[in-house]
């Protein structure tokens, strides 16, 4: 049996490849053989860590979420004012750059499949709930410090921002000529700017 450190590394490698294949081929067309090929391992090795395809895809969505949060941990732990942190959240989630675009495609596949799959609905509920709570905490900090003067429930404000990022990002990924990355940036940053009375007309 491989050492624990080797096992953890191999498992992460397989999950990263699973996300890559989901983004490229779609959730329904994912094959364990394609994951194994991308990871440079055998199909048997994949099944050693994940007995079923369902276990593999659930773990891949979890992996994608954790990687996304980890990549942005510096924003969440920053000493920058809350409004600045929200602007950094916007910039970090714009669908540009291979890694971020791949993650967006994985989430898009999860959302589409969750419409018909109760088990994936539960996964989406958990991941999305955690992400909304993280964004809401920034709004809460901003209201407490006076940096954000817009009144309202922080969770409700987080829902507004998260839904804006999600909806516009999907349009960018769909190749909309009316919604480019630059246009998305302007719209989302304008929303953030309007959270302070200094920018409210």
TrEMBL record:
Residues 8-68 form the HTH tetR-type domain. Keywords: DNA-binding, Repressor, Transcription, Transcription regulation. Residues 31-50 bind DNA. Transmembrane segments: none annotated. Signal peptide: none annotated. This is TetR family transcriptional regulator. It comes from Lentzea cavernae.
């Amino acid at each position: 049996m491989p050492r624990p450190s080797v096992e953890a590394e191999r498992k992460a490698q397989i999950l990263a490849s699973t996300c890559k294949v989901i983004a490229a081929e779609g959730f329904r067309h994912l094959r364990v053989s394609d994951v194994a090929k991308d990871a440079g391992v055998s199909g048997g090795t994949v099944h050693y860590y994940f007995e079923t395809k369902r276990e593999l895809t659930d773990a891949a969505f979890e992996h994608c979420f954790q990687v996304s949060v980890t990549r942005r941990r510096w924003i969440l732990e920053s000493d920058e004012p809350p409004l600045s942190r929200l602007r950094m959240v916007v910039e970090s989630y714009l669908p540009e750059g291979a890694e971020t675009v791949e993650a967006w495609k994985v989430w898009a596949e999860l959302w589409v499949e969750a419409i018909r799959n109760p088990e994936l609905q539960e996964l989406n509920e958990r991941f999305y709930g955690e992400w909304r709570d993280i964004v809401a905490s920034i709004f809460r900090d901003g209201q407490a410090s006076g940096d954000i003067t817009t009144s309202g429930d922080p969770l409700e404000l987080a829902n507004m921002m998260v839904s804006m990022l999600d909806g516009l990002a999907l349009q960018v990924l769909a190749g909309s000529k009316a919604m480019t990355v630059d246009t998305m940036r302007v719209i989302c940053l304008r929303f953030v700017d309007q959270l302070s009375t200094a920018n409210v007309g």
